Amino acid sequence: MDVTILGPQRRPNGARTAVGQLMPHGPVATVNAGWQERESDTRELEDVLGGRMVNLELYRRWRQISEADPAYAAAERELSRALEDLRSGYLVRLRHALAAAREAAA
C-alpha cells in the first residue's frame, strides 16, 4: 500500500489538485488534531476532497484516553511543562547567540 503525506494545505485548490494527482481514487485520511475542538468541522475539507475524506479524529481520541486514564493525563501535563521549560531556555540561548552574531557582524 502506498502512503503519501501532505503537510498543511493553505488553499483549497492546492489540496484538491495535490490529492487529485497523487490519489485519484479511494479514501483520503486526514489529521485535523491541530484544530482541537473544531476537529470535526470538516465540511469544507470534505468538499475539497470530493467526499473521500476519513477524519482520523486524533484529538478526540486523545481526549478520551486522557479522561479515561488520569495518571496518563497527569504525566502528559508534566511532560508538556518540562518541554515548555526546555523551549524557553533554548529561546534565551538563541537570543543571546543572535545578539552576539549581530555584534560580531557590525
Write up this protein.
- This protein is mainly alpha-helical and 106 residues long.
- 60% of the residues lie in helices and 6% in strands.
- It contains four helices and two strands; from the N terminus they run H-E-H-E-H-H.
- The protein has a two-stranded parallel ribbon with strand order 1-2.
- Helix 2 (43-48) links the parallel strand 1 (28-30) and strand 2.
- Helix 3 (58-68) packs across helix 4.
- The radius of gyration is 20 Å and the shape is flat.
- The model has no long low-confidence stretch (mean pLDDT 89).
| CA distance, first residue to last residue | 55 Å
What are the segments in which pLDDT stays under 50 over at least 5 consecutive residues? none
| Basic shape | flat
- Order of strands in the sheet with most strands: 1-2
What's the topology here?
Layout: H1 12-22, E1 28-30, H2 43-48, E2 53-55, H3 58-68, H4 70-105
Parallel strand pairs: 1-2
Summarize this, please?
With 106 residues, this protein is mainly alpha-helical. It has four helices and two strands, in the order αβαβαα.
